# Entry
Amino acid sequence: MKYLAILTILLTALILKSCSFNDSEMVYEEKLVVFASISANLPVIDTVLVSKTASINDESVLSSDLVVNDAQVRLIEDSTGKTLDFFNVGPGQYFPLSDVTQSSDTNYTSFIIQPGKTYTLVVSNDTDSVFAKTTVPEEMNIRAADLGTYVCPDGTELSTDTIDVNNLKEFSVDQLLGFASDPQSFISDNDINIDSITFRFGDCFTKSFASYPMFGVDFDSDNYQTIKTLTFALDANKKGLEPLITIGDINAPSFEDPDSGMFYDYNYNGIRDSTFINLIYDTTLGFRIWKGSYFRGENNVPYRINPWQWNIEESPTQIPWLYFDYYGLNLMTFKATSESYFDYFSGDPVGQNIYLLPDSNLEGGLGVFYSSYETRFLVYVKREEDY
# Structure
């Protein structure tokens, strides 16, 4: 019993020592924060964002005070040593051209991001310097997926569409520049096949992320870690009179116009006036939960952020209603991303825990520098009444 008592005392002392709360306090150190990306087979098309950190104890700091406008930014292709310098073009924003009128600058146009190559981004100012590397993915291939039959919550069975997801695959980057300047003429001149899908409302179609899939996309998921998708509505800015009520009530505010009848009052002013007529509008609970509230612009006109983005990792992936915010022509882009993008989003990039930092590849700083290889296709989103 004597030895047992001595052993108990020793173990208690060890436990208390190991549970000591005399932890050393981490000293805050200001760092540069950089966000940048490059895409295979393209020149640099995204601005590099540079700012600095602030202590979480300093509540008086404004985000506008943290942008860095005196940085030197340089992109280097490691295998050749070829470099591209960036200019400060806005608050904390850097781009290889100081003015868009210089888009024919040969230093810029000849610096095309090559698949499989490694690039280094170096950012420095008078007080700090950081760098990061990324290896560009080799390729990105997608194909249509046959998802078969979908069973609605009420037991109704519906077949899913199979669409052409490679209708822009054969065009070079130079050719696609023509598409960017005049989509309709490009589509017509090249006789591009564009399949249509129908946006429908109801429990089967707009209840959750697991609702009826409009179509499916397949890819070799073993070859990629994270696929970033972008849905860009080409007809988002089309304006016209607020639409008349021609289908079942979708819980939108409505008023009677003496000349035309009942209409959806998108901007809550009691007058049938101008709005973004291709906006997919609904204020039911499912929409509010999954999509959030609409943004409001001039004259309280509702709109959505365009393009809409999402990350996926598994294939085949189902494309439901959540991928689309506007009727009309939509450009969908699937981007195979580098390992640095996967690592960053495996951390805490949306700031759920202020004490947990995302996994940055910036040596000596925070943020992420990543690369991607992208493929894209066009799809047309029809209204339900046209079904």
In short: Residues 89 and 98 are 6 Å apart (CA to CA). Residues 32-55+63-138+338-373 form one domain. The first strand starts at residue 32 and ends at 39.
